[in-house]
Amino acid sequence: MCGIGSVGFVKKVNIGKPDFTWDDSDPQGFRAGMARLGGLLGAKETGISVYELPPGQAICPYHYECGEEEWLLVLSGAPTLRAPDGEERLAPWDVACFPRGPEGAHQIRNDTEEPARVLMFSTVVHPTATVYPDSEKVGIWTGDPESTVMVRRSANVEYYDGET
Questions:
Q1: What whole-number distance in Å separates Cα of residue 156 and Cα of residue 158?
Q2: Is the pLDDT confidence value at 33 over 50?
Q3: Which pairing describes strands 137-141 and 149-152: parallel, antiparallel, or unpaired?
Q4: Distances (CA, A) of 159 to 96, 126, 133, 163
Q5: Going edge to edge, which strands form the sheet with 86-89?
Q6: Spatial CA neighbour of 123 closest among 44, 18, 60, 10
Q7: Whole-model pTM over 0.85
Q8: How do strand 64-65 and strand 137-141 relate by DSSP bridges?
Q9: Cα–Cα distance measured from residue 34 to residue 119, given in angstroms and rounded to the nearest whole number
């Protein structure tokens, strides 16, 4: 357990020993343990997650956010940051900010032989969109799983398509 407790009415958690979940459906190359702490603490407008990156794994594909600003804090290891201007090996306590839009595109992966651990936090906005330049996809996150979609950019239709 990640030491969830409270101080008066304020919830707290210890990020030193998070309770990671692993999604068995994640493909090879994107298998990272995740501890989503924002929800555990009752946050509504900011998200915070700790990720455990085994060697050869990434948190997610290269992407940028259209509605959210994201931050990264390296807790341990030496993950690689891919950004629009290239790649850089990071060290513990390095911090990076990823602004909204293409200039904030990023991917965090572990190219070393040792595990890496990072903390990411962001604003939480619904609806929002995430763009994946390498695969030409766009994800639309509405806050309602029934209307959330992931589409290829090529699926673009005219505004009145299908209307009578």
A1: 7
A2: yes
A3: antiparallel
A4: 38, 22, 23, 9
A5: 86-89, 80-83, 107-109
A6: 44
A7: yes
A8: unpaired
A9: 10
